């Protein structure tokens, strides 16, 4: 392969230093390289530019006319590279302009993303968030293509190739309207089963969940009167009727003026929520800052 096609940035940094020092030994000291290594790079540069670049003189080395012509554009190009690197390593939220695509369930949007958006408006107004429907089977390909930058989800179906950070553990609570005639702080399993229940079926239309399997093992069957496709409709529906529902606790933390929240009378497994991202965004200053904000919000919750 032609040596001109194998140009590497380190060679240009060496040339800039050599032209500034006009001495191989001093340039090697500045670059923290050995003198033979710098001499070898100088030979590659001479071949690349088809010019001696530096020639011996009684005071060390003198730059050729071609080398002097290269010096200013070389400095400008390297300064631009250094500036770009500095901008990414020293991220400034208030002046940043970027768009981030986040995939999550509607529950996570209500519990985490809503607060995140308010924080961004105050501390990083130039960051735009695009919310995407969470599609776990397609997530790895979406992130590799840059269509999704972050995913907030349970880790059960998380692709192993993606980076993962645990955010919080969620648990279920039972909610009903204030002054519900049959909802008590301490329910028996039989009383729980006799209530009219709303369940959430993410696939749509299902009237049975893992909770019903647990009840069946105890010898009970609950009365499910509505199957919803989303958790978001459930608190309002419950607050206006006599139906009850098991929902993630964080969904109703700020809704308790309209709802009564009680413990389920038998153990119901909760679930973890974490954050996933692709290696392509791992070192980006803006994405790193945003991930830290989400981690802090989750810990505050």
Describe this structure in words.
- With about 300 residues, the chain is an alpha/beta fold.
- About 40% of the residues lie in helices and about 20% in strands.
- It is rod-shaped and about 100 Å long.
Core attributes:
about 300 residues, alpha/beta, five-stranded mixed β-sheet, 10 helices
Quickly describe the structure.
The chain is of the alpha/beta class and 301 residues long.
Low-confidence stretches: none
Rounded to an integer, what's the Rg over CA atoms? 31 Å
Series of secondary-structure elements, N-terminal to C-terminal = HHHEEHEHEHEEEHEHEHEEEH
Helix content: 40-55%
What is the molecular shape? rod-shaped
Q: Count the helices. How many? A: 10
Q: How many strands, which pairing sense, and closed or not: the largest β-sheet?
A: 5 strands, mixed
Distance between the termini: 57 Å
Secondary structure elements and their pairing?
Blueprint: H1 9-21, H2 24-31, H3 35-49, E1 54-57, E2 60-63, H4 65-89, E3 98-104, H5 106-123, E4 127-133, H6 136-145, E5 150-153, E6 163-170, E7 172-177, H7 189-194, E8 196-200, H8 210-217, E9 223-228, H9 234-239, E10 244-248, E11 259-262, E12 271-277, H10 285-300
Parallel strand pairs: 3-4, 3-5, 8-9, 8-10
Antiparallel strand pairs: 1-2, 5-12, 6-12, 7-10, 7-11
